Amino acid sequence: MKRIYTFFSALLSFSAFATPIAPDLGTILAPNGFFPPGTGAGIFDSGGQGLTPNDLDGVGDDTDFFELIEFTASTPAGNSFGLYQLDPLGVPMDFLTVFTGSDTGLPMAPAFESVNWNILTGAATTSISAADFSETLLLDLPGWEIGAFMATPTATYYTHDFLNPGGVRQVGVFDSSGGGGPAGDLVFAWEDTTIFGGGLPDYDDMIVLATDISPRQRAEVPAPGGLVVLLSGLGAMLWTRRKSKA
């Protein structure tokens, strides 16, 4: 039986999906002609900020597969995509690089990569990177969550919107597991310029397809006020943990 991780956080405030971006996946994919006409039509951003790997049963591959496609990226060779852990205080850490932009060679030339999950050690690895994801993969600690990032030469954007400039959503996370979209379970459609302050998003600069992974909800920020004492103790623990990983 597959082990599906359940994340929760008693120390965090309201748990909710983000406000989805407006265009459906079909509108984002259509202008580039890479996919057949109508692909993704009617599939809308899930609003998911965190991610749940679904193939973590300790049997077989325990692997998620990713496909990278860059359409109109302003600096395709300078962009990268990967995963991270978010701690209960809302700090991203343990960055795992899945792709660099140069992996594609040319715009619209796909690249493929896999993320291997080791549920015995908590390690997450690709062919070019490794990170310790033990808090989510091994220990199932409350408040910890996996997210995805896109890095450019000037900024890094996250699926957790509160980490982005102005708290703006820089990516659409589309659940295509029900059919009608590209092959796979999840589609990340990224905007590689900062939207906050006047950028015009098209969300087609970097497209990443993923299998065996699904979106999930998580609180955006730590709760203030009455939980200060609890969070101070947790903060000391996390500081020690981050220092040990530095």
Instruction: Report the strand count.
Output: 15
Q: Distance between the terminal alpha carbons, to the nearest Å? A: 36 Å
Number of helices: 3
Biggest sheet details: 7 strands, antiparallel
Helix/strand/pairing class, anyone? mainly beta
Overall domain count: 1
- Give unreliable regions as ranges: 1-15, 219-234
Shape: globular
* Order of strands, widest sheet: 8-7-6-3-13-12-11
* Assembly state (oligomeric): single chain
- Binned, the helix content reads 10-25%
What is this entry, summarized?
The protein has 246 residues and is mainly beta. It has one domain. It contains three helices and 15 strands.
Description of the structure:
With 246 residues, this protein is mainly β. It has one domain (18-221). Helices cover 11% and strands 30% of the residues. The chain has three helices and 15 strands. The chain has helices spanning 25-29, 134-137, 228-245; strands at residues 15-16, 50-53, 63-70, 80-86, 92-100, 111-117, 123-125, 130-132, 145-151, 156-158, 171-175, 186-190, 206-210, 213-216, 218-219. The strands form four sheets. It has a seven-stranded antiparallel sheet. Strands 5-4-9-10 form a four-stranded antiparallel sheet, with no helix packed on it. A two-stranded antiparallel sheet has the order 1-15. The longest helix has 18 residues, at 228-245. The protein is globular, with a radius of gyration of 18 Å.
